[in-house]
Amino acid sequence: MAHIAVRPYRPDDHDGVQRVVSAAFHPGNEATLVERIRSSEYYVADTELVAVIGDEIVGHVMVSSASIVDDAGTTSPIAMLSPLAVDPAHQRQGIGGALVEAVCAIAEDRAEPVIVLEGSPSYYSRFGFEPAEHLGITLPLPDWAPHEAAQVLRLSAYDPRDPGLRGTVRYPPAFDGFE
To answer: How crowded is residue 122: how many other Cβ atoms within 10 Å of its Cβ?
Structure first.
């Protein structure tokens, strides 16, 4: 197996990221979502990573800012992982896992309390993600997604007594219109 390196995104990675995200989500709009996040105020540059084999980009992940709105209408910032993409020709080689572990470590270093995502519970549970509903967090999922797809990873800054970490996730505007 070739050596896989995970590193921060650079502007010259743009075309490779677009290719990988488009291939991984074909025929989805996730490549457009990446662009929309990247050009928004919710973009967190140090949490956008690529996986490379040699000079070829084979994977991509990013964590952007989102928020939780509690019952009183108070908004608290949180981190959201979306999207994770691996080139179909390189899937099942640990690339996605390496990207998830690396981006979660960065979020930990940034003292984020949680990371939320929509995704496969059987995949993300291996990294410590758990059903968001267990922590009182609701993600507005598309109709086709099972409620188990709403997941959260508690990081060391998580305080279970913090009421700002319970409520409904408000996605950044970049997600408007995406299902």
So the answer is: 8
Confidence of residue 27 (pLDDT cuts 50, 70, 90): confident
Question: Tokens 């059903």 sit at which residue?
Answer: 131
pLDDT at 178 over 80: no
Residue 47 and residue 62 in contact, taking contact as beta carbons nearer than 8 Å = yes
Residues 6 or more apart whose CB falls under 8 angstroms from that of 178 comprise: 29, 30, 33
Contact in structure between 48 and 84 (CB atoms under 8 Å): no
Helix-strand-coil split of the chain, %, nearest 5: 35, 30, 35
Residue that is written with structure tokens 């979660």 in the block: 104
- Calculate helix-pair angle for 30-38, 14-24, nearest 10 degrees: 140
Cis peptide upstream of residue 140 (ω within 30 degrees of 0): no
Question: Of the candidates 129, 134, 141, 146, which has an alpha carbon nearest to the alpha carbon of residue 63?
Answer: 129
pTM of the model: 0.94
Q: How far apart are CA 17 and CA 123, in angstroms?
A: 22
- pLDDT for the residue numbered 1: 58
List pLDDT tens digits, range 116-159. 999 999 999 999 999 999 999 999 998 888 999 999 999 999 99
